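Record pair follows.
FIRST:
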Amino acid sequence: MKKLTRKLACVMMALMLLVGALTGCSTESDTQWYLHKSISLQEKYGTLPQEGTVGNLDYRILEKDAFSCYESEAGYYIDMLEEPDSPYFIVITLGSKAKDAVEIVDLGMDGTTLQIVIAHADATGDESDSKSSPCCVLQVNQMPGSIEIHDRNGRTYELIEK
């Protein structure tokens, strides 16, 4: 009886491994998160332009030193200047404990939802302020209906309530 149970267990494990191999168990390269080709600006242009139009929004990716981020948690928030017709700034931060740099690598409009893909990179250079958080900023001329932000590993970045 023990031999039969052991054989059945071996057969089940072999079947599970086979099914996993045939269905494409995820590997490191399979876990990358991308926008659908039909909405991806990176797909359309080969690389993401620093400024342009996505859907009905005019956008501009600001230089890394254009904004100082001091958020302790990872996520995003919306900022704007206190003047008429000010653009909106979507500030994406990794939080104060992060050591990585961050950049926007793709954008797309899915209906009224602005989708943003970010990527992490090892920080380079001197750290001038240990309180600052790695961040990147997207300037838009108007607010989209909603915003979804993901990193390449599929992590979702939520709105930070201020």
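SECOND:
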Amino acid sequence: MSQKNTSETFPQRVVDMMKAGGSTVTCLPVKIESSEVDDWQAALFFRLGGQESEADIELLKSQEAALAVGIETDLIEHENATVVMLRVQMFTQPDNPLVGEVLITPGGAETHYEILTLLGAQETLTWFLSDQDFQIIHQQRQPLNDDWRKEFLALRDESFKRDAVIRLAGKYSAQTAFAEVVSHYSLRG
């Protein structure tokens, strides 16, 4: 299911968080007012910008139907904490999808633990895409089946167990692990 909404922006909390962290994609717990269910759920926020995104922005502004999406997951086992990686893709172009990675430290941030818990319970995942100015240009919902919900809960549980052992050893630092993982990333120019 897809909805176009070009008159709204991302919630200010999302804008502030994305600006502070320099991120272009994130996953956060939100209450979606137009949802049939009035519960908290995790949602993806994807900000596009720069010349490399101009064609995608124009396509998304006029897109009426939902686009194909993909999610890959991985556990990054750093010596100081476990980082869960969600690699998200939206196929605006069949051979060149929009790609972003969300890094989550479930043992270090209550919100991160909550994100995986919500993803493990909710029926759908809502994607919000914006332009450089955080104006929503496209949104859609992706169904989450039982296998995906089990995967998110397994990632949460495995990372939490692993982090408990690291804490017992006195080496736990989610910030250190996160910074080390992020140091291997570079922004597309």
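COMMENT: The first helix runs from residue 12 to 21.
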